[in-house]
C-alpha cells in the first residue's frame, strides 16, 4: 500500500527545523514505531528524499518487539527508506532496566552509524518530552544544566564525541506528530510502558494532562533558553579552567578556587574530576557535598578521585582500597 506524503506545509516547517541543526549530508533516524518516531520518519523522508536511512533497535524485552521492528521495516520500504534492525541484549544489572536498555540502544546505534559512515542521528524528542523533563528536574531541585533538558544537538552518548544526535522536533507537540502519522494511514506501535505509572515520566505526563493551565511550548522555550545559559556558563568555565587549573605532578590537578562564584566553581571542580577520571559523572548532591568539604579545607574521595581543600584544591587518583582481611585466615609468621 502506498503511503501518502505529509502535508507540504508540515514538510516545509520540518525542513526549516532540520536545516538549523544538520547539514545537507546523509542522515540516520532512530525509529521505534511509536507515533513520534514514525512522524519523524515521514517528515524526514519527504524533506530529504534519498538522504535518509533508519534503524530500529529490538531490545527483546517484549514478545511483540520483533513484529514491531518488522512493521517499521515495512513502512520504510513503502517510502523508499533503507532500514536496519539492530538486535541488542539488555543485561539485568544493578541499574534500572530503562538505563540498561538506553545504554544498549545507543551503543548499537553508534556502531550502526559508524558502519554506515553517517555522523548524525535524528531522534523524535518533542516539546511535550522537553516540558516533562523540565518539570521532573524542577521537582528534584536541578540546577541550570539539568533544567536545560534535552539539547537540540549534542554528542551521541557513548561515542566519545565522534557522533552527534539532533532533535529537530523539539518545537512540535505530541498531538501534531500523531496527526502526521494518522494522515498517512499508519497505526503506530503501542508500547505498554507508556501507561506504566511505575515510571516517573508517565506519572508526570498524566499530571500535565490534568493541568490544562500549563503552557507546554513556553516550558519548552524555557528549557531552550536554559540550554543557551548552560552553554555560556560552560564556555566561561572552560576559560577559567585554562587559567586556574594546572598540572601538579603525574595525574594531579591543582585548582585556584578563590573568588569563584558557586555555579562556576561547580563546573571547574567537575572539570578537575574528569581530568583525572574521564568517566566521572557525580550526582548533583554529591558535587554539592564535595564543594562544602573542600571549602572547609578537608579531604574527600569522589568518583575514584582524591580531592583535597586548602589554599589550592588538588585532585588526583584515589589510592586503591585495601582488601578486607578474610575472617579466620592464618597469619603469616
Oligomeric state of the chains?
Answer: single chain
The overall pLDDT, averaged over residues, is 89
Q: Per the principal axes of the C-alpha atoms, what is the gross shape?
A: elongated
Percent strand equals 5-15%
Assign the CATH class of the largest domain.
Answer: Alpha Beta
State the CATH architecture of the largest domain: 3-Layer(aba) Sandwich
The secondary structure category is alpha/beta
Could you say what the CATH topology of the largest domain is called? Answer: Rossmann fold
Rg value? 23 Å
Provide structural commentary:
This protein has 333 residues and is α/β, with parallel strands linked by helices. The protein folds into 2 domains: 8-215, 3-Layer(aba) Sandwich (Rossmann fold), CATH 3.40.50; 220-317, Chorismate Mutase Domain, subunit A (Up-down Bundle). It contains 11 helices and 11 strands. It has helices spanning 8-19, 35-47, 65-78, 97-116, 127-139, 144-147, 174-183, 200-210, 216-244, 262-276, 284-295, and strands at residues 27-30, 52-58, 83-87, 120-122, 153-155, 164-166, 245-247, 253-255, 299-302, 305-308, 313-317. The protein has a 6-stranded mixed beta sheet, sandwiched between helices. The chain has a 5-stranded antiparallel beta sheet with strand order 7-8-11-10-9. The protein is elongated, with a radius of gyration of 23 Å. The chain starts with 7 loop residues before the first helix and ends in a 16-residue tail after the last strand.
Amino acid at each position: 500500500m502506498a503511503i501518502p506524503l505529509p502535508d507540504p506545509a508540515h514538510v516545509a516547517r520540518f525542513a526549516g527545523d532540520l536545516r538549523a541543526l544538520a547539514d545537507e549530508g546523509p542522515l540516520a533516524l532512530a525509529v521505534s514505531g511509536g507515533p513520534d518516531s514514525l512522524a519523524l520518519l515521514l517528515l524526514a523522508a519527504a524533506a530529504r528524499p534519498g538522504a535518509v536511512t533508519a534503524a530500529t533497535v529490538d531490545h527483546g524485552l517484549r514478545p511483540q518487539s520483533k513484529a514491531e521492528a518488522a512493521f517499521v521495516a515495512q513502512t520504510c520500504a513503502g517510502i523508499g527508506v533503507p532500514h536496519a534492525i539492530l538486535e541488542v541484549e539488555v543485561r539485568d544489572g544493578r541499574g534500572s532496566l530503562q538505563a540498561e536498555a538506553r545504554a544498549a540502544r545507543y551503543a548499537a546505534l553508534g556502531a550502526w552509524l559508524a558502519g554506515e559512515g553517517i555522523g548524525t542521528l535524528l531522534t523524535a524528542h518533542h516539546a511535550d518530552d522537553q516540558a516533562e523533563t523540565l518539570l521532573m528536574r524542577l521537582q528534584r531541585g536541578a540546577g541550570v544544566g539539568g533544567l536545560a533538558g534535552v539539547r537540540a544537538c549534542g554528542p551521541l552518548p557513548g561515542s566519545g564525541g565522534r557522533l552527534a544526535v539532533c532533535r529537530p522536533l523539539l518545537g512540535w507537540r505530541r498531538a501534531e506528530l500523531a496527526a502526521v502519522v494518522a494522515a498517512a494511514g499508519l497505526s503506530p506501535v503501542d508500547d505498554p510502558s507508556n501507561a506504566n505509572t511505575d515510571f516517573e515520566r508517565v506519572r508526570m505526563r498524566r499530571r500535565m494532562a490534568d493541568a490544562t493551565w500549563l503552557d507546554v511550548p513556553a516550558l519548552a522555550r524555557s528549557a531552550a533558553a536554559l540550554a543557551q545559559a548552560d552553554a555560556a556558563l560552560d564556555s566561561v568555565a572552560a576559560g577559567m579552567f585554562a587559567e586556574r587549573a594546572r598540572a601538579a605532578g603525574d595525574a594531579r590537578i591543582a585548582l585556584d578556587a578563590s573568588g569563584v562564584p558557586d555555579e562556576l566553581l561547580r563546573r571547574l571542580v567537575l572539570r578537575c574530576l574528569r581530568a583525572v577520571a574521564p568517566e566521572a559523572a557525580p550526582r548533583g548532591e554529591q558535587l554539592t557535598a564535595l564543594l562544602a568539604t573542600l571549602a572547609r579545607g578537608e579531604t574527600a574521595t569522589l568518583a575514584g578521585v582524591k580531592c583535597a581543600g586548602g589554599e589550592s584544591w588538588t585532585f588526583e587518583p584515589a589510592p586503591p582500597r585495601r582488601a578486607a582481611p578474610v575472617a579466620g585466615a592464618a597469619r603469616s609468621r
